Amino acid sequence: KQAGGALGLLTQLVSVFGYVGLFVGGIIIANTFSILITQRTRELALMRACGASRAQVLGSIMIEATLVGVLGSIVGLGIGVVGVIGLLQLVGNLITLPTTVPTLTPLVVFGSLIVGVATTVAASMVPGWRATRISPVAALGEVAEDRGRGSVTRRLLGMVMALGGLAAGSLALFAIDANARLTLVAGDPAAGTAATAVNLRTVVFSVSAAITLLSFLVVGPVVVGPVGRIIGWPLRLGGGPVGHIAGENARRNPSRTTATAAALTIGVAIATTLAVFVASLVGSVKAGFSDQLRGQIVVSSGLGGATSGGLPEGVMGDVAATSGVDTLARVRFIPATVTGVDGNPTGGGSVSGVDPKPFFSLVKVPLIGGTAASLTPGTVAVDADTARANAWAVGDSISVFYPQVGAVEYPISLLFEGPIGTASFLMPMENLDDVTAVAFRQDALYYISVTPGSDPTVVADRIDGELRRVAPAAKAQLVPQWLDDTVATFNLALNLVYVMLGFTVLLSLFGIVNTLYLSIYERTRELGLLRSVGATRVQVRRLVLAESVIMASIGTSVGITLGVWFGAGLFTVLSGNIAAATIHVPWVQLVVLGLGGAIAGMAAGWWPAGRAARRPILSAIGYE
Predict the structure, then answer these.
(1) pLDDT tens digit string along 22-36?
(2) Phi, then psi, of 474 in degrees rounded to 5
(3) What is the Cα–Cα distance from 50 to 47, expressed in whole angstroms?
(4) Which helix (H) or strand (E) holds 367?
(5) Residue 549 in contact with residue 255, Cβ under 8 Å?
(6) Among 124, 17, 27, which Cα is nearest to 69's?
(7) Alpha-carbon Rg of the chain, whole angstroms?
């Protein structure tokens, strides 16, 4: 069950990106139907003039959307099955997996069809409703274009959503207390059930981020013009007439450009959010340890992380006796659950054991309510933020549940302003010895300071020599090296997320290809006229490519801007248990992301540009 729960977290993460993909796909579908209906204005108006009702027009579009949804879902299901086979073969090289392909259950088949059709029909509903508003008189005129900047109501709604989302996010960051909690389900002391509560700042900021991101879809037509003018300025400056026309084409239909750029905006915003969050997490963890540790060397067990133990008690004496070692402070972690005032677990899933005097001589943190000598056997030291969140003070007792022996009560003898890395509860080693079998009394880390005048690198090499004899898996590292290894897991997880986000970005690039292709189909006569007055095929190709770059750059720039705000805010509301929490913006990654967006936009426009350039002049001019 525990293994299934761990895999369930991965499933939930993948599902989130699946929902994002559906949302992005819905935007592309809505934009496609909007363009197609705009192109068929005369056709739909003639239907209305011949007696078709609005319900019939809407019904025909919904039937069309249903057929598209069914076809797309069947193709997607088939691609998914092929993808499963490929992933099983890929992962099978790392771990043992069944060789049989998972069977398609009715739930998977019909669920895929229902989700695909529902997404397509829902996405086409708004363009279909607009089609019913076409007056029969429009059949006498030329094909109408989209309404560009949108109605006044839409613009006002978008501005309210954008400003409201930013205001709510600012409220969460600067006005709501970091420890404020929102109780969803009240606890029942008589029944022994704990309350279900969430952090209020996290909830408010998450909702504000969603509203702010969605507001771009609504207020985008107002923003696209100025942003497109800024982004298109280099093209107008160095591209001559072609660059000028491309800039105007990207801005003349803001609603369409917004819908096309929004798909890319969502993917880039999520990628930027995670990049800023992880950079801030990594930077803060490294800065916090660097500020707190007075030692120069860290010995780690090398057995799957700091919480796995792996350094038996006898090892400490051998390491402490190594030439050049001045002070050694050992750290041990064991699984435990500390119950907060609301009845819920708090402070992570472990407690830390230390030898108070050497530990606090090597770890620099402000102590509240006592000194290192105050942390005596049978007591506990608590991070001050955790204590404030639970209204604890020195002298209060807390309950710690150990899987081996059950619940044990400890009085709080000391508070420390930190926390130390991510540790919120420190105990003397005697406490952990009392609840741990002798075979499992193994330390996770040694913090070591060297004697004055000694070279830390030389001392680390000597310690490694001792470790190879008594604990081969352990290793001694200088503090910067140990920190790099410690945070490497975060970067690995971020790379995994980037891979999944890549599929979302790829989907949004299909949206750019789709929009350009349909817009070229719509502007066939216009492009033919450009060729007739002297534009070459190369210039037409450059024109379409420039439009693609502008659209992609708009989506990328807006996504990066929103992502920086989301990432900084998310880290702020979640960083209560991280020492020296500061915002770090990975500028190099963001520049690469911005340039990548422009290059991807050019790649997306290559095929539509080639098709536009190959169209014969006479057939384009005579196209109706």
Answers:
(1) 888 888 888 888 888
(2) -80, 160
(3) 5
(4) strand 367-368
(5) no
(6) 124
(7) 31
Q: Which of the residues in the chain have pLDDT under 50?
A: 143-146, 305-307
Q: Structure tokens of 588?
A: 């190099």
What's the pLDDT tens digit per position in 168-190? Answer: 989 888 888 776 777 776 766 56
Nearest CA to 382 out of 356, 413, 350, 406 is that of 413
Closest CA to 271 of 30, 590, 26, 35: 590
CA 479 – CA 295 distance, rounded (Å): 8
The C-alpha torsion from 519 through 523 and 524 to 530, rounded to 10°, is -130
Three-state secondary structure along 138-195?
HHHCCCCCCCCCCCHHHHHHHHHHHHHHHHHHHHHHHCCCCCCEEEEECCECCCCECC
| Residue 196: predicted pLDDT | 67
* Nearest-angstrom CA–CA distance, 551 and 56: 35
Q: What is the DSSP string of 484-513?
A: HHHHHHHHHHHHHHHHHHHHHHHHHHHHHH
- Cross-strand bridge partners of residue 363: 293
> Helix axis angle, 479-522 relative to 524-532, nearest 10°?
80
Q: Closest by alpha carbon to 501, among 275, 220, 207?
A: 275
The interaxial angle of helices 254-292 and 200-231, nearest 10 deg, is 130
Q: Which amino acid is at 501?
A: L
| Alpha-carbon gap, residue 324 to 341, rounded angstroms | 46
Angle (CA) 573-579-582 rounded to 5° is 55
Q: What's the one-letter identity of residue 599?
A: I
Burial of 22 (0-12, 13-18, 19+ CB in 10 A): middle
Q: What is the pTM of this model?
A: 0.74
Which 3-state string (H, E, C) describes 240-298?
Answer: HHHHHHHHHHHHHCHHHHHHHHHHHHHHHHHHHHHHHHHHHHHHHHHHHHHHHECCCEE
CA 340 to chain centroid, in Å, comes to 29
Mean pLDDT of the chain: 82
Rounded distance between C-alpha atoms, residue 427 and residue 416, angstroms: 12
- Candidates 308, 289, 328, 309; CA nearest to 463 is 328
Which amino acid is present at 217?
L
Tokens of 557: 């720039």
| Distance in angstroms (rounded) separating the CA atoms of residues 331 and 292 | 15
Whole-angstrom distance, CA of residue 491 vs CA of residue 471: 28
Q: How far apart are CA 459 and CA 478, in angstroms?
A: 10
Single-letter amino acid code for the residue at 124: S
